[in-house]
Automatic annotation (TrEMBL):
List of catalytic residues: 52
Stored Gene3D superfamilies: Janus/Ocnus
Protein name, entry field: Sex-regulated protein janus-B
Organism domain of life: Eukaryota
Length: 122
């Protein structure tokens, strides 16, 4: 357990806004004190963050002292009424996330949703 009390297995895999279009990042989280543990890959996306780096700042603040490595970013369009999530685009600062990996993680958290990915758009 890290000094903040956050353990890797207790971190929610997905934390995205309930609806709207917003930026997201795909992150590997590790505990530097437990090198033998595999990283946990998480998805975070918030409309109130203007930049992908703002999302990272927020996540690092919540998970400190765990270490966050951004694997890439993009955008999410979340339509809760129709149970649809579209993953697309890229981050200018972090590059494009692997949208397939992101989709698989989100599918576990939103099993009744239709999840689509696209390399189109920003």
């Amino acid at each position: 357990m890290s000094s903040s009390g956050v353990t890797l297995d207790a971190i929610p895999k997905v934390d995205i806004d309930k609806s709207g279009v917003f930026k997201y990042i795909l992150i590997n989280v590790t505990d530097k004190n437990k090198q033998e543990e595999s990283p946990v890959t998480i998805v975070r996306g918030y409309a109130h963050c203007n930049y992908h780096s703002d999302i990272l700042d927020e996540v690092e603040g919540k998970l400190h002292p765990l270490q966050c490595e951004v694997l890439g970013g993009g955008r999410i369009s979340h339509d809760a009424d129709f149970k649809r999530i579209k993953i697309y685009g890229y981050s200018q600062g972090f590059g494009k996330a692997d949208h397939e990996v992101t989709a698989n993680i989100i599918k576990d958290a939103y099993p009744k949703y239709t999840i689509t990915i696209s390399d189109e758009g920003y």
